[in-house]
């Protein structure tokens, strides 16, 4: 993402920084940090913020079609929460010395990444339950660990976000449990949705450890505390019993419990699909980017009004001084 070469760091400063990390200290915005650490965090946090914002689209798609007032209210609240998460994390990136509008421009022109999962369509109402259960469920597994990340502002944002994500997951699972106990058509709609979202949810954790170029450095600096595969396995172990409890099947003929490791062993992930999606060739990449660009264009008058208001206030306070 950042084409500039990384500068040579002062070895004494670098050693002191790494000692602080090893001692479990939190790195704060005004502390010295290697440029590479700053860039890695900017990359990860901006991708995360973009994911929250783009993540509003698949669910926003169903607000007008929610089947009851209660469901509509909780869906609206969830989508608003995602916008809030995006804003906390964009604020967090600014503590690293970047301008959020530069990051946002990268999202709009298609050069920034955001989570692969949001490039899949939401075809049925059951998808609202399954996204809450599986997608927010996967996000919680990843983000609970990120709440202990070495960069203070990101860790603190994660604590708050995880509380809200937990609520999202519960409302999603409750929706799934309701459909699972419903009519044959409702059960079939739920099963179809799980079949479509299961594998993309597993891909949210990123490539396998052997193919993850950023992991070694991020683990060394304790930005990541667990590997992609460790988190993916934890998610599967937590989710299989939840699926069993509501009588839903997971679309993996190789899924089996290994009594020795106490893990649910799962089948091979189609990594070619993952790489196609993150290259921009998923089912909804173009639609998502077009929707964000449209929203940005339609919001121009709001930005202009806010800027004019700010200028007026500044002129008033200069007059008063
Ligand atoms: N999708 O070296 P790796 C949410 C990229 S929002 C797209 O393993 P890393 C929610 C990766 O960026 C959930 N790209 O990377 C919102 C890298 O490319 P670059 C978002 C992916 O950083 C609304 C390349 O593949 N959560 O929960 O060590 C409603 C190689 O990967 C993906 C976060 O963003 C992917 N799935 O590990 C509901 C959490 N996976 O940048 C829910 C913060 C990998 O080198 N991020 N790539 O060009 C992370 O924890 C880590 O960045 C990742 C990837 C585990 C995602």
Q: Topology, please?
A:
Blueprint: H1 11-22, H2 35-54, H3 56-60, H4 69-94, H5 100-108, H6 126-146, H7 152-180, H8 184-203, H9 215-220, H10 228-245, E1 256-258, E2 263-265, H11 271-281, H12 285-298, H13 300-320
Antiparallel strand pairs: 1-2
Helix pairs in contact: 2-4, 4-7, 6-7, 6-8, 6-10
The structure holds benzoyl coenzyme A.
Structural features, described:
- With 321 residues, the protein is mainly alpha-helical.
- It has 13 helices and two strands; from the N terminus they run H-H-H-H-H-H-H-H-H-H-E-E-H-H-H.
- It has helices spanning 11-22, 35-54, 56-60, 69-94, 100-108, 126-146, 152-180, 184-203, 215-220, 228-245, 271-281, 285-298, 300-320; strands spanning 256-258, 263-265.
- Strand 1 and strand 2 form a beta hairpin.
- Helix 2 (35-54) runs antiparallel to helix 4 (69-94) and helix 4 packs antiparallel against helix 7 (152-180).
- The radius of gyration is 21 Å and the shape is globular.
- The model has no long low-confidence stretch (mean pLDDT 96).
- The structure holds benzoyl coenzyme A.
- Benzoyl coenzyme A (BYC) binds at residues 1, 43-44, 47-48, 51-52, 55, 82, 113, 115-116, 135-136, 139, 142, 203-207, 212-215, 218, 228, 278.
- Benzoyl coenzyme A is lined by residues 1, 43-44, 47-48, 51-52, 55, 82, 113, 115-116, 135-136, 139, 142, 203-207, 212-215, 218, 228, 278.
């Amino acid at each position: 993402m950042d084409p500039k070469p990384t500068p040579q760091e002062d070895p004494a400063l670098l050693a002191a920084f790494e000692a602080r990390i090893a001692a479990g200290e939190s790195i704060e915005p005004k502390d010295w940090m290697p440029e590479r650490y700053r860039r890695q965090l900017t990359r990860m946090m901006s991708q995360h913020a973009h994911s929250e914002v783009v993540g509003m689209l698949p669910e926003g798609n169903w607000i007008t079609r929610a089947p009851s007032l209660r469901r509509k209210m909780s869906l609206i609240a969830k989508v608003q929460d995602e916008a809030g998460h995006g804003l906390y994390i964009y604020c967090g990136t600014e503590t690293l010395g970047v301008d959020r509008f530069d990051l946002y421009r990268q999202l709009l022109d298609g050069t920034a990444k955001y989570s692969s999962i949001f490039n899949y369509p939401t075809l049925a109402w059951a998808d609202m339950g399954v996204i809450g259960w599986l997608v927010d469920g996967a996000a919680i597994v990843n983000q609970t660990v990120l709440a202990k990340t070495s960069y203070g502002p990101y860790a603190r944002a994660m604590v708050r976000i995880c509380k809200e994500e937990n609520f999202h997951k519960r409302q999603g699972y409750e929706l799934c449990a309701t459909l699972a106990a419903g009519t044959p058509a409702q059960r079939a709609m739920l099963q179809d949705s799980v079949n479509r979202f299961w594998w993309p949810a597993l891909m949210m954790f990123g490539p396998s450890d052997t193919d993850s170029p950023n992991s070694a450095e991020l683990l060394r600096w304790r930005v990541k505390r667990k590997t992609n595969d460790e988190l993916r396995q934890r998610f599967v172990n937590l989710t299989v019993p939840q699926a069993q409890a509501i009588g839903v099947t997971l679309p993996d003929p190789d899924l089996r419990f290994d009594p020795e490791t106490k893990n649910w062993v799962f089948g091979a992930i189609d990594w070619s699909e993952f790489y196609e999606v993150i290259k921009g060739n998923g089912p909804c990449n173009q639609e998502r980017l077009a929707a964000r660009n449209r929203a940005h264009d339609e919001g121009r008058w709001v930005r202009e009004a806010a800027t004019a208001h700010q200028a007026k206030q500044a002129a008033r306070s200069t007059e008063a001084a």
